[in-house]
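This part of the workshop introduces the protein records we will be handling. Getting from the letters to the tokens is the skill we practise here. The record below serves as our worked example for the rest of this section.

…
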Amino acid sequence: MKRLLRLLPLLLYLCGCSAFHAALSKTEPVRPPVIPMTPVTTLPSIPAAQAISTEAESATALSSPVTGAPTEPTPTAPTEPIPWQSGDTTPTWKPELAESYPADEACGADLLLEKWMAVEGLTMADLNERDCRQLILVAAQPAEGVETVTVCYERSAEGCFVPAESLPRMYGFVGKNGIMHNRRRNTNTSPAGLWAIGMAFGNEAPPEHLKLPWRQVTPNSDWVCDEASPYFNTWQERDDPTLIPWGDDVEHLENYPSLYAWACVIEFNRPPDVVPNRGCAIFLHCAKAGTGGCVGLRREDMLSVLEWLDCGKNPYILVTGAECAASSTGSSSPDSVACSFSCA
């Protein structure tokens, strides 16, 4: 017993140390295991506009005064390239080739067609693949590029194009700012290229020997130029209750009794091959001066051409010639006009 009493202090000391160490182990923070760090790769900075991923974020960023971003999206620039359309000869156009030929007045009908087909990069194969058997050549002349030489051709039994015997060389007009490849709306230019001829129409009675489909103008006849309308670049009667109303951008055909005495449609930018900002309502019609973009002939010549055209021969019109600086500037002042070539 005496021996146990002598060991009692030692036992008490050892029990106290154990309790103390247990208390310490409860309060000591648990350290996470150490994970080796991977070297950081520096990424290229991303512009704020590209970092936006949702419409909501986009709206916030566009109105943010911190970033200095515009309050609304910037509209598409009008100089953005116009998409190619069937009939557009812009990709093959070589205006410099005209200088290797005589002036139009010195060219016979055969050479005149050869000249302007070469300039536009067209061959007989282009006409044959369209089964074109009637062709109207409209060549805008130098100076202001508004007056034209117009010659009608028909395909012979041998397969070549010869001048129509019943029609002489004629003189007419294009847009008051000339012709334009990659034609844009509101430029007062006529679209350069090879375009099909569509139906005929007019405010006067149809010609006696007409061989094209005809539509008579009425007080309700509209040519819809509203690009937001499903009827864009088509003829509609505005009193038709089944149609969806269109905007004010329209031609009331009855308002042009002289110009549209007789006319026919040039199939430029027509459904379903429609490209925005190219324009609409491009016709071959009666004219005494430069037009807003159509091709014009004097009244007596227009009547003769209309009676010659035959829908069974797939007629086309080739609009070509001197393209002037006014086509791109929108100016019609003679002092500001410089054509893309000078004829020898």
